[in-house]
Amino acid sequence: MKSHDFKKYLTKSVLGLEVLLALGLTIGIIIGLVDIVKYIGYILHTDIGHTYEVFKKFLGFTLLLVVGIELVLMLLSHSTSAILELILFAIARKMLIYSETMLDLVLGTIAIAGVFLIRKYLMTNKKFVNEEGRVISAGEYVHDVNFDTGLHIPENKGNTIGGLVCNLSEESATPVEEGAEYEAGNIIIKIVKMKDGLIEKVLLKENKEMQKQKG
């Protein structure tokens, strides 16, 4: 087996393992929902003097499930945004459940502010790498791209940019290949890089002709 073929096979195997892990986590989260119902029952029947401790455990368990959901999204999307959201929820859980002093709250607040600064300045700058428009990862969420760039890409046709392109491809009967362009509102999406049949990078640019017609 050639080195290139082995790397390709290994990559697909690792991606498959990630999907299996995400599936296992999802099953665990669904089972955990049963415990949430049990916690609600405990809260209803607990003496008022012990309600605080029970509710604290309930809140910690609920936020742990939320962290699990974000971890599943991270495994499936490989999105930097998903990683930051996972870190954000983990910090929030730490602050709400385990913070006992003012120093804990201050450090948690600084950590959350750091996450927002990374997303606002470091992540956004990496997207503006082409004079023709904005080159971004196809794994980015449409909502996050709109938030970071100020564009108005339709969010009802796909959660990620890659998913949006696939749906636009079906609607316009345009094959998914490098160089292919698709219209999404007043935005033109062009595939600039693919690997093993998967979209990796796309170029976003505003449709100037549509803007002229509106003007």
From TrEMBL:
It comes from the Bacteria. GO terms for molecular function: flavin adenine dinucleotide binding. Keywords: Membrane, Transmembrane, Transmembrane helix. Signal peptide: none annotated. InterPro entries: FAD-bd_PCMH-like_sf, FAD-bd_PCMH_sub2. The chain crosses the membrane at residues 20-37, 58-76, 96-118. This is Transporter. It comes from Clostridium aceticum. The lineage of its organism: Bacteria, Bacillati, Bacillota, Clostridia, Eubacteriales.
